[in-house]
Design a protein that fits this description.
GO molecular function, one term: catalytic activity
Distance between the termini: 32 Å
Protein name: Putative peptidase S33 family protein
Pfam families: Abhydrolase_6
Helix content: 40-55%
CATH superfamily: Alpha/Beta hydrolase fold, catalytic domain
Number of helices: 13
Shape: globular
Radius of gyration: 18 Å
Number of strands: 8
Organism: Streptomyces lydicamycinicus
Strand content: 15-25%
Strand order of the largest sheet: 1-2-4-3-5-6-7-8
Largest sheet: 8 strands, mixed
Oligomer: single chain
Length: 267
């Protein structure tokens, strides 16, 4: 693990070399986690190992304000977060060729935005129950605002620490700092959902993996109808918790896409 300079920040990164697989030297697989209580460990414990063992180089990182990365007071809009990713790829020498982007939840929105603004950097996108269209921005900011108020007034981190639940206390304190002492909520509220016009401009293949009961599935269906090359995979019996509750099916879908011939994942 390392702190890597990226556009004025230090981002906590973890790299896993591919081994024993069929595609040495192929595009690196970059994982993008979700918001607030999430960090690179969510992928480290689920998908990163199997992808690395399949022969793909892997990059995990904590986004700004998350995990062990720097937490500046501003810059949590989608465009700035994507600029962080692009700067990180440059610092690591991964901007000389395209990478595969795998994004969970809000990380999927960042992956899709990257593919739109820097198509030369993206070989393919894999979305895991990502936020795309509709009222999700309003819903998310409302949810985060309620959580912020609860953390601010209940002193929950201190209560957990007093009970000896130190890991939960640290995560809660980090969430409080992010929600109540940065512009994250305001920045997300100022962003706009993707449109069908955005989807039609995508130049790379997209795999969208969603839960059967996910409230975000309608956006994925719109993506599949509008994007030039999009496969929608719906996993039964789960909602927004695909990464943790349908890991095996998700991993099979991801490895099936990454293991495809080179011509099928990049144009």
């Amino acid at each position: 693990m390392a702190l890597t300079p990226a556009g004025g920040l230090r981002l906590h990164t973890q790299r896993l070399p591919g081994h024993g697989g069929p595609r040495p030297g192929g595009p690196t697989v970059v994982f993008l986690h979700g918001l607030v209580m999430d960090n690179l460990s969510s992928f480290y414990c689920t998908l990163a190992g199997p992808v690395s063992r399949a022969g793909h180089d892997v990059l995990l990182y904590d986004q700004r304000g998350h995990g062990r990365s720097d937490r500046p007071p501003t810059g949590y809009d989608r465009a700035t977060s994507v600029a962080d990713l692009i700067a990180l790829l440059g610092s690591l020498g991964l901007d000389r060729g395209p990478v595969h982007l795998v994004g969970n939840s809000y990380g999927g929105a960042l992956a899709l935005h990257t593919a739109l603004v820097r198509p030369d950097l993206v070989a393919s996108v894999v979305l895991i129950d990502a936020h795309l269209t509709g009222d999700w921005i309003d819903d998310m900011t409302d949810t985060l605002s309620v959580a912020a108020l609860g953390l601010e007034h209940r002193a929950l981190a201190g209560q957990l620490a007093a009970l000896g639940r130190r890991k939960e206390a640290r995560l809660t304190a980090a969430a409080d700092a992010l929600l109540n002492h940065t512009t994250l909520i305001e920045d997300i509220a100022a962003d706009a959902p993707f449109t069908p016009g955005d989807f039609t401009r995508l130049r790379c293949p997209v795999l969208a993996v969603y839960g059967q009961h996910s409230e975000l599935l309608s956006g994925a269906r719109q993506l599949a109808l509008s994007a030039p090359d999009c496969e929608l995979c719906v996993l039964p019996g789960v909602g927004h918790t695909v990464l943790n509750e349908a890991t095996e099916g998700l991993c099979d879908a991801l490895l099936g896409r990454l293991g495809a011939p080179a011509g099928a994942v990049a144009r």
